Amino acid sequence: MGSGFGDTLAARVAARESQIVLGLDPDPEALWPGVHDAADTPRAEHLQRQNAEPRQHAEQVPTTPGDRSTTRRTDHAPTWRAAVATRVHCCALIDATGPACVAVKPQLACFERLGAPGWEALEAVIEHAHQRGLLVIADGKRGDIALSARAYAQALFERLRVDLATVNPLLGGDAIEPFVTVARAAGAGVLLLVRTSNQGAADVQDLELASGGPVWERLAAFVAEQEAAGVGEWGLSDVGAVVGATQPQHLQRARELMPRAVMLLPGVGAQGGRVEDLAPAFLPGRAGGLITASRSIVGAHLATGGDPAEAARAEAERLRETAWALGDR
Amino acid sequence: MGSGFGDTLAARVAARESQIVLGLDPDPEALWPGVHDAADTPRAEHLQRQNAEPRQHAEQVPTTPGDRSTTRRTDHAPTWRAAVATRVHCCALIDATGPACVAVKPQLACFERLGAPGWEALEAVIEHAHQRGLLVIADGKRGDIALSARAYAQALFERLRVDLATVNPLLGGDAIEPFVTVARAAGAGVLLLVRTSNQGAADVQDLELASGGPVWERLAAFVAEQEAAGVGEWGLSDVGAVVGATQPQHLQRARELMPRAVMLLPGVGAQGGRVEDLAPAFLPGRAGGLITASRSIVGAHLATGGDPAEAARAEAERLRETAWALGDR
């Protein structure tokens, strides 16, 4: 065997000596200083015009015979500009911190709000991360039934060619299955939401079931059910879980329920989670726990001052060292 | 008051005498005959080339100073072609069946798998539906925390300018709130997944809670909690629910729990649900229940033979009449 995503991840974590995932949640209003200047170079402006123009023409495609009336009032140039700046920002962040990371995690919502230009930026950022030797985790929390689930899986694993994607399991087993099937065929993996890092997670995920245990343990069972088929030589499955780092008391139990699962651990840093509390995640090996951080890295310079790229690099490296040391226990 | 989405919907349902929602789940491999020919006209091909070209140029934007090496091997022309065909297909379907419908419901997954060109097609289809006097329900089942939820809401209600969007409530109240806030500010509404139409829905949504009742009733409580703030003059809220038409036994209970909610009722037709079983949804008025159908309309000609547009029009009109008659009870 040894060809599934569990092995891919374990080998990559070992080679890069990192379990850190750089979260990419770009807000066009809060990009690094200088990024908008880079997006304003004559070449970039020329490209923005090129990109904006066909959009205006495309609006005049006859949608049905005899209908040529379709026009839009939207001015797309600002969006293309924001998308180019977003792309430059994300690539600069990847270049600064990539050596300390094993993966990047673009938040699809942040690109989606820029429409088609945002989708183009997303594809370019993914390509850039791959070229820097990083895995890509699409954080879209998609979830739907049957054919729609399959279409989402195709978008993620065949079109965007990401290595992992977060999936929302509320719709049950038949809605999860297409994601696993398409991911596995692409040598990629799936991360099911099990216990998220936000306060409101308790509203549904922590509800106690009549049969015993909270709802999130039932979600963990989906992961456990899928584990066996996808475990590779390194002992890790290609179906993993999102388990918030803000509730470390859940981690030990989650690991019991999902012994082979890769755990994505959001909530370190700005949300209050501490790397030191995450040891149970690493029981099946260092690649068993992926620590994702976004604001604490991209905004490191706000606390330390100095160059944003240098501050981000230092913070990513500090996280990497702290987490890597845990693996020796 | 009377300015919220509940009133908008009620007025539109009354004016169009329809509660039918046309589901748009385009599969590039199964579009109406002739659509690909329309996408092959010289003008469309010219536009495809224009659309494809800047993509190739854009790949050469320097992502960081000194980096000009980024290139991709992907040939984008087939995707642009599929996206144009998808757009032509959806617009033809809207033109054929729109007069019998009150809204269209694009399944975002089906556009997303075509990448940026798919997103462009989605925007054009939404615009076309609006021009035909139809409301637009984005079926994306998005759900995420805090800033990400806000970004999704911006993508849906500010960028795509849809009138309603389906939202996955697994992440709890603080993840739902940004969708409601952004929607309400835009005069739009939100539909929370409460009990979906697929078989696997039972895996999580039907689990019995220790405190009594199934999980889906807790999801219905999110809707009920939001109802009061958003109820308009016609007695309908701007926060509604997705309740599968495949399990009509749940409908009566769902209506008790969510007396003011607009209910989107998927599962009629291909999935086995019957319009005749949906009466409880219409208790607060005809606009209280929106009946969505996709495959049974777009594929009507496969059963009846003849012109796809004419068969689709007849099936949509048949559904409209059947549902409208229920409202007289």
Number of domains of chain A: 1
The helix tally of chain A amounts to 14
Secondary-structure-based class of chain A equals alpha/beta
How big a fraction of the residues of chain A is strand?
5-15%
Q: Can you identify the CATH superfamily of chain A?
A: Aldolase class I
Total number of beta strands of chain A: 8
- Oligomeric state of the chains present here: homodimer
Query: Can you write the helix and strand succession of chain A as a string?
Result: HEHHHEHHEHEHEHHEHEEHHH
CATH class category name of chain A: Alpha Beta
User: What are the low-pLDDT stretches of chain A, counting only 5+ consecutive residues below 50?
Assistant: 52-73
Q: Average pLDDT value of chain A?
A: 88
What would the CATH topology of chain A be?
A: TIM Barrel
Overall 3D geometry of chain A? globular
Looking across the biggest beta sheet of chain A, what order are the strands in? Answer: 1-2-3-4-5-6-7-8
The CATH architecture category of chain A equals Alpha-Beta Barrel
Rg from alpha-carbon coordinates of chain A: 21 Å
Largest interface: A-B, 91 and 91 residues
Report the biggest beta sheet of chain A as strand number plus sense, adding barrel if it closes: 8 strands, parallel, barrel
Q: Could you estimate the helical fraction of the residues of chain A in percent?
A: 40-55%
What is the secondary structure topology, with strand pairs?
The structure is a homodimer of 329-residue chains.
Chain A lengths: L4 H12 L3 E5 L10 H5 L2 H17 L18 H21 L5 E4 L1 H5 L2 H17 L3 E8 L3 H14 L4 E4 L5 H13 L3 E7 L5 H5 L9 H16 L8 E5 L5 H9 L5 E3 L23 E5 L1 H4 L1 H5 L3 H19 L3
Parallel strand pairs in A: 1-2, 1-8, 2-3, 3-4, 4-5, 5-6, 6-7, 7-8
Helix pairs in contact in A: 3-4, 4-6, 4-14, 7-8
